[in-house]
Amino acid sequence: MQTIDVKQLADKATEGEVDLIDVRMPTEFREVHAECAKNVPLESLDPNEVAGSRSNGSAEPIYLICRSGNRSAQACKKFIDAGIENVVNVEGGTTAWAAAGLPVVRGKKAFPLMQQVQITAGFLVVLGVVLGYFVHPYFVALSGFVGAGLMFAGSTGLCPMASLIAKMPWNQCGGGSCSA
Hints:
The chain is α/β, with parallel strands linked by helices and 180 residues long. It has 8 helices and 7 strands.
């Protein structure tokens, strides 16, 4: 997989238009993003659709960015698996972009998804214990179910609860736009 440093990409952006796709959630994108980035969340990323809608031709690479580089690496793999190999992962992601003093757009702060997952999981575990104690012992199965889900998420890197919470209305940007 090809990679590029944020400063090298910024230099290319000053020379002409680059296709920079930010694969973070819309609320993360709204909080802060590289000035030249477009938001296409990883979970809804269709490599063929992105490649088909390009404005600067297929000869130029598609640059992929996220917060730190992990999700954009997954996005690169999606493109490569779809037969589109001219993709480049931006090293260090938006964090490195902002730290380098490159132009960013800042907007409304968001409550981080993983914090939302932790609060929800903790609430469901406590609820299962309380209901199990006061209502019926079978309610402790709720706590067991949440625990099993956390073990699954930790061992596979896939978190169904995070996917569900990410689709909640407060984690979406209204009007189809995630700009400030």
